[in-house]
Amino acid sequence: MSWDDAWREGRTPWDAGDTAPPLAELLASGELGHAKSALVPGCGGGWDVLAFEQAGIRAVGLDVAPSVVPVFAANRAKRAIDATRARLVIDDFFTFAPAERFDVIWDYTFLCAIPPAWRERWAERVDALLAPDGTLATLIFPATHPGPDYVGPPWPLHPEDVRALLQPRGFRAVKLERPTRSHPAREGKEWIAIWRR
């Protein structure tokens, strides 16, 4: 089943129906500095895109599934955000070519959803899409050790995995800790991290 099929058929158990609590805390804390633009790859229904917009940060949600368009529009309407803001772009993260780089890239349930063999490509794209003085914020999930019969996605992901991808490109973690709040059933399986070059 493709991502588009899943959205069209409403088979999206990963959609928690609200902004990720650690992102809400991050935006409220001011730790993202004076960011003006954000990219949310694999944005799905757009809850995290909408959170950036509500914090005054121009946000672009990126997804490969055209079936998310009406879902995104409905969620934007629920948050009373004008249709000229919180843009959704249907495109492939690995070929997406925006006119400008982003101040922030937020990754939550995107890196863990792509095949592990593509992770190096993810790091290359993050490096290319992020402004030189930008911030990569990741909510690393699912930080678990499943049994040998486990089949993803999501594929297990741990802080050391992300560090190994980013460190060769000059990124360092300026924050790496367990979040104080998570979506139900995700408690203890996440790490919030801020990376800068």
Highlighted features:
globular, seven-stranded mixed β-sheet, 197 residues, Rossmann fold, 27% helix, alpha/beta, single chain
Structure description:
The protein has 197 residues and is α/β, with parallel strands linked by helices. The chain has a single domain (3-8, 19-196), classed as Vaccinia Virus protein VP39 (Rossmann fold). It contains six helices and seven strands, in the order ααβαβαββαβαββ. It has helices at residues 3-9, 21-29, 47-54, 68-78, 119-129, 159-166, and strands spanning 37-41, 58-63, 87-90, 102-108, 130-140, 172-177, 191-196. It has a seven-stranded mixed beta sheet with strand order 3-2-1-4-5-7-6, with helices on both faces. It is globular. The model has no long low-confidence stretch (mean pLDDT 94).
Topology, please?
Layout: H1 3-9, H2 21-29, E1 37-41, H3 47-54, E2 58-63, H4 68-78, E3 87-90, E4 102-108, H5 119-129, E5 130-140, H6 159-166, E6 172-177, E7 191-196
Please tally the β strands and state the result.
Answer: 7
Q: What is the subunit arrangement here?
A: single chain
Rg estimate, integer Å:
16 Å
> Termini distance?
37 Å
Mean pLDDT: 94
